[in-house]
Amino acid sequence: MVSTKAANRPFLGYSEYRTKREQEHTAWLRRKKERDEKVARGEEVGAEEPDPTEEPEVGCLGLLKFIVYAIVFLLLAGKFFTGSYLWEHELPNIKKLIPTNQRLYSERMLATFDGTNPERPVYLAIDGDVYDVSAGRRTYGPGGPYHMLAGKDAARAYSTGCFSTHLTHDLRGLSESELQGVENWKKFYAEHKKYVKIGRVSHPPIDPASPVPEHCDPKKAKDSRTPEQVENMKIADSRRHGQGHAEL
Predict the structure, then answer these.
(1) Does the domain spanning 95-223 belong to CATH 3.10.120.10?
(2) What is the pLDDT of residues 139-191, one digit of tens each?
(3) Is 126 in a helix, a strand, or coil?
(4) CB atoms within 10 A of CB 104
(5) Which alpha helices (H) appear in the chain, and where do they start and end?
């Protein structure tokens, strides 16, 4: 016989539970036998009594309930421990996962999506890639701090900060760090949760003989001159000095 010490109480409790269940099952078998005998004699009987000791099957509904409870528990635990229901994970932008029919825009067509028409979306381009930034209409629409970028490809301005004079896609003469700045901004738009790439913009070829856009900062403008520009300036200066000596 097992003693009633505290360490044995779980075992004793389980033994009592098993004994009770066996008694219930035995009583059910007796009632079932009596019912079967009545049925054999043709007597009327009620509905068949289920075995009270039979373990219920989980089934699809039970499994579904368990999954729902588990999801709710995980969401609440995430909110409690991290302050985020998703445990600080971000859901992917569904729009980016849906294939879109990206189109090719001309500069003139792109300019019509600068936000001045409230019934049209707001587009901008950077290094040829066109994005729908309508979710940021307060930023890129009329009156917004970056409205000057809407409806055009102002890739150069993103790296130089010259938002008055560098609203162009011309990246000639930029330093390595400035070119990297453009790449960083391209990555920003590509990975943005609300902005979606919708196509490309077609630019006319840049005339290589045309002057490189000058930096709005005079110091940087001097530092960003190409060797060809410096040489041309020297030639022009020497010609001016030559004309001055001839006049003397």
Answers:
(1) yes
(2) 999 999 999 999 999 999 999 999 999 999 999 999 999 999 999 999 999 99
(3) strand
(4) 11
(5) 9-41, 59-82, 94-97, 107-111, 137-140, 155-160, 176-191, 218-223, 227-247
